[in-house]
Amino acid sequence: MVSRIAFIECGGNSGALYQKDPVAGGVQALHGLVSCAEWTGVRLADVLDEAGVDPKAQWILAEGADAAGMSRSVPLAKAMDDAILTLYQNGERIRPSNGYPLRLLLPGYEGNMNVKWLRRIKVTEGPTMTKDETSKYTISLPNGKALQFVFPIEAKSVITRPSPGLTMKGVGLYEISGLAWSGYGKIAKVDVSADGGKSWAPATLQEPVLAKALTRFRVAWRWNGGPAILQSRATDESGYVQPTRADLIAARGVKTIYHFNGIASWAVGENGEVTHVYA
Amino acid sequence: MSMPSRLVTASASLLVFSSAAIADGPGLGRVASLDEIASWDISIGPDGAGLPPGRGTPKQGQTVYAEKCVACHGENGAGKPNDQLVGGRGSPSGDPAPVKTVGSFWPYATTLFDYVRRAMPLNAPKSLSDDEVYAVSAYILQLNGIIGEADAMDAQTLPQVQMPNRDGFINFSRTQ
User: Fold this and answer.
1) In a designed cystine with B131, which of A144, B2, B54, B99 is the match (CB 3.0 to 4.6 A)?
2) What is the pTM assigned to this prediction?
C-alpha cells in the first residue's frame, strides 16, 4: 500500500469564466469543484506488473460499476507512473459517494478520469473512444475542431479570502489567502496583485508544498479603502505560468466549459464589498 | 476481433484479490480465465472489437425508441429534457456554440452501441437486448442521415459507418 495527498478537480471547474459576462458568485460556486485528500491503496503498476502487460498495449480502460458504467481511457504510461487503486480516503474507507470500495486515482488528471466504484481495468492498444472522452471532456476550439485527451489540469490558483461574501471591515491590514495547484507537479510560486495585474507581489507558500496537491498561499495587504482588483497567478515547477483570462480565451476560444485555468479577479469596492469581475 | 485473448485484464474485482499466489509476483491474485474476462467485458473498441452477435434496423429501432427513449430524448431525437441526439450537422465550426449530437459530433458509431448498452435507458441500464441496442443505434444514425432506412447494423456494419465528425478531433499536446 502507498499513501499520497492529491487534488481532484472536475474538468468543468471554473467553466463559468468562459462566459461573456462575469457570473455573480463566490469562490465555492465558481471554483469549488476541487478537493484535496490523502489517498491510500495499491499502485496500479504493481497490479499490472503482476498480471503482465502485452508489449503492444499503450492504454487502459477504467470502468466504473455505476449504473452508466462510466469509463475512460488512460495512457498506460500514466497507469504505470503514479496511478493508485485507492481503498482509503483520509484514513477511512472511501465513502460511497466518493467511490467505495475502490477508486482509481490519477494524480493531476481531470476528475472524471478518477473512476469511482472501479469494476474493471482493461489493457488495450488504443483508446476505447468512450462517450465521456469523445462527446464530453473534449475542448471545442474556435475553428470547429476539438482537443481530445486533455488530461492534466494546468497550473491555476484562486484567492479564497477576501472573496465574494466576505465583506471588508474597514481600512487596515488584511491577509490575502488562496489555493494553487497544478496537474504537472509542485507549485513553484504564486504572485498576487491588488491592482488588476499591473503590479505583483510574491506570496508565501504553506509548507509542505506537494506535487499535484492544493497549496495554500498567503500575503499581507494593507487596504487603503479605495477600489482594488485582487488576482493571483500561479507558476508550477515545469515553468508554466497561469495565463490571463484574455490569453486563455485567445488560444482556446469560448466554445468549451472545460479546463478553465485563467486568472480570476475579485473587485473590492469602496464599501468593502467583494465581487467577481473580469479585469 | 480476438481482443480478449490478446489482453490482460487486471480486474478490480475480488476475483483477482483472492488468495492464490502467482510465483513471480507479490501474490496479489490469480490469473482470470478467458470466460471470466469475457463475462466482465462490456466495452466496444472503435474498430468494433467486442461487438456481440445480433442485428437491428432503423425501423426496429424506432419501436424501441418510442417505448424507452422518447421520454428523455424527444421526438426524432430532438432532445429535452436530456441530450439532443439528432441534428446540428456542421455546427461545430459555426458560431457561437456547437450543437453536439451523435450526428454532428460523435466520431465513432461504436461509441453509440457501447454507451446505449451500458447506460441506457436511464431507469433500467443494461436491460436492452443486443438486438435492441443495434436497432436503436441504427435508428439514431438513420435520423441523422448517416445510414439509410434499409441499413441494418451488426458487428460488421456498425464499425464501418463513417461519422461526419470523424476528423473533428485533435490529440492534445501540451505545446498547443
Assistant:
1) B54
2) 0.93
**Segment 63-122 of chain B within 8 Å of chain A by CB:** 92-94, 96-98, 100, 102, 105-108, 110-111, 114-115, 118-119
- Where exactly are the structural domains of chain B? 1-41, 55-160
Residue A126 and residue B29: Cβ atoms within 8 Å? no
Chain A interface includes B166 (CB < 8 A): no
Reported as a single tens digit per residue, the pLDDT across A110-145 is 999 999 999 999 999 999 999 999 999 999 999 999
pLDDT at B18 over 70: no
CATH code linked to domain B55-160: 1.10.760.10
Q: Where does chain A show beta strands of DSSP type E?
A: 2-9, 34-43, 59-64, 71-75, 84-89, 92-93, 103-105, 118-124, 139-140, 146-148, 156-161, 172-181, 187-193, 201-202, 204-205, 215-223, 228-236, 265-268, 274-277
Write down all domains in chain A, each with its CATH number in brackets: 2-129 (3.90.420.10), 156-277 (2.60.40.650)
Whether B21 has its CB under 8 Å from any CB of chain A: the answer is no
Please count the residues of chain B: 176
- Report the C-alpha gap between B30 and B28 in whole angstroms: 7
Angle, CA A51 vertex, CA A49 and CA A56 arms, to 5°:
75
**Rounded to whole angstroms, how far apart are CA atoms A176 and A68?**
43
Tell which residue, B44, B164, B47, has the closest CA to residue B107: B164
